[in-house]
Amino acid sequence: MLKAGVLGAGHLGKIHLKLLKQSTNYELVGFYDANQEAAKALEAELGYKSFSSMEALIDACDMVDVVTPTIHHFACAEKVIKAGKHLFIEKPITNTVTEADTIRDLAKKHGVRGQVGQVERFNPAFMAVNHMIENPMFIEAHRLSDFNPRGTDVSVVLDLMIHDIDAILSVVKSKVKNVHASGVSVISDTPDIANARIEFENGCVANLTASRISMKKMRKARFFQKDAYISVDFLEKKCEVVKMKDAPKNPDDFAMVLTNAEGVKKQIYFDNPEVAGNNAILDELDSFAQAIANDTTPEVSLSQGADALRVAMQVIENFKEI
User: Fold this and answer.
1) Total count of domains within the chain
2) Which of 31, 37, 199, 257 might form a disulfide with 6, Cβ 3.0–4.6 angstroms?
3) Is 264 inside a domain boundary?
4) Matching Gene3D superfamilies, A to Z (predicted)?
5) What single DSSP character describes residue 237?
6) Is residue 247 part of a domain?
């Protein structure tokens, strides 16, 4: 078992502590939080060992899970990697692209593994269909949430939209060509609503909308490709696949058949893949343990985390040009 520790014991940090304790792949050694008063209270309440310094925690671990505010990600990650320990780091990977590239290069230099906490990659609805998404040419994603002050230290792009950016980059096998975006600040100092149009070199276009001041929650993505439409509801953990194939000469009476202007007939088939229940955060932590044990590339590598941040920053830069 890998000895694991957590840096940062806020809302998400407490969830990671609980799941690392449950995992059969890790031995939870404890945590460090800069707020020592709160750390001692958590230690007394739940029994997790509180370390008096970041360095002491890192020394006691094989893998360190960084769940601090984003602004502190780089400093924490740098210490973890230079100590020769494996790194799991929450999204966004760092506060700047330069920091992300540095972390990626440092991990390679020191021979350690790193994974970014892009939890939607482990959403069971996405996992049920991602192997069916082949060369999508149009993608539409909506990620809407009600207001939560906890996430407003960063733009809605880094808070919410980056989930969809990462998921899209994982299925579109092409480089980003252009990014167009607009954003509006309503409550926060940074944009609370954003829309981005991402154009890829292969012609694929992705239209993304994110809001953290909506009246209702929504996390949906739709992928359109030749002869297929794939829908993923990340919130409800549901998915749907609609495929079109050449219609048989004698379709049955209940078949849905479309005929185009050239007279070509296509039959529509509906498929609702089985979605297995899971705990996505536990699964991503366990998958990292397997990557370390098998010396393989993590499911969401530091390079992929840097790529998602790079596109997110292009979106944010577009706001400044408006």
Assistant:
1) 1
2) 31
3) no
4) Dihydrodipicolinate Reductase, domain 2, NAD(P)-binding Rossmann-like Domain
5) T
6) no
Name residue 32's beta-bridge partners: 7
The single residue listed with the structure tokens 């790529």 is 307
Cα distances (Å, whole numbers) of residue 107 to 72, 85, 310? 17, 9, 18
Give the type of residue at 58.
I
Domain of 49 in residue numbering reads as: 2-118+281-300
Count of helix runs (H) and strand runs (E) in the chain: 10, 14
User: Cβ of 60: how many Cβ atoms within 10 Å?
Assistant: 17
DSSP letters for 157-190: IIIIIHHHHHHHHHH--S-EEEEEEEEE-SSSSS
pTM of this structure? 0.91
For residue 67, the Cα-to-chain-centroid distance in whole angstroms is 14
Q: Is residue 21 in a domain?
A: yes
pLDDT mean for each 10 residues of the chain (322 residues): 97 97 98 96 96 98 97 97 98 96 98 98 96 96 85 81 98 97 87 95 98 94 94 96 77 68 75 90 98 97 98 90 50
Residue 287 lies in a domain: yes
